[in-house]
Amino acid sequence: MSTLTLSGLRKNYGILDVIKGVDLEIAEREFIVFVGPSGCGKSTLLRMIAGLETISGGDLFIGGRRMNDVEPSERGIAMVFQSYALYPHLTVRENMGFALRFAGVAKADIEKQVMEAARTLGLEKLMDRRPKDLSGGQRQRVAIGRAIVRHPQVFLFDEPLSNLDADLRVHMRIEIARLHRELNTTIIYVTHDQVEAMTLADRIVVLRDGAIEQVGTPLELYDRPDNLFVAGFIGSPRMNFLPVKTEEAGLRLTAHGDHLIPVTLPFSLGTSLTIGIRPEAFDPEAALSMPVTVEFVEHLGNNTLIHARAGSGDLLTISDTRARGLKAGDRYVARFDPARMLIFDGNGKRLDLAMDP
User: To the nearest whole percent, how much of the chain has pLDDT over 70?
Assistant: First the structure.
């Protein structure tokens, strides 16, 4: 069994609280991704699971066994680091088999397990090379292979693709997803890259300041974020936020020009709210319009991202597959459907409301 339970898990350095009472259940064979801004505690939490950081409070269970004071080597986990952590003087074969040799496994068994992992990762032709003779992607596969041969209950990945170029990151995402299916084991993966999170995870754990903001499937977090932080963090390009005040006739934009959105909400007049609109939720066919001035255009081939401003508000990002030839200074009419808006209250919490025109 490779279930994990984090119950009130805390980490502090003196008076500084880094992890602030995290509660999380991770199912057997689940692919969990920790995301959040720099300094949110995601790598610290992963290292606490690995046993590389002591637990200041709460309990950690792996397979039903309390692990707070268990040595890292006895937790049934294997960790893949951002820096690969390969021995430069050893060959691929020797790097992958190092932990097994250290554990006293018979030489014939080491060779068998190393070659099985090598075949899984496509490393058979590289076994006698040293790390300096490998590409970044090949080094990362060796680091993963070194973890595979230990047959762990849980794999831990700490930003493993951050040192790779864009093409290699795409390739390695596919490889890691394939490995998860083939190895049929639990994976906990830390990244700052939400594209990795959205494409790899069964569930995403969004962290901020050492606490969990929301846990859910990628599409749950994208479509129904609990609050402004999650809404702004999940999604690339990020969601547009427009402050509004309630009027009898609807919602009045307070910064992005003097426009009224004719929807009725159950709030007293003058209530301050925030609406959220995804860039792709703007639709040239929609009825509601907002004239904007283009400041920057990203032509991406199959899509165009328009960065524009209305009134004194922040830049809006609008996705339009039909817009070509726009340039800075042009006027553009952004159109959207109120049914695709999200509404957040004054504390940043998403509200479940029927938006009746």
Answer: 99
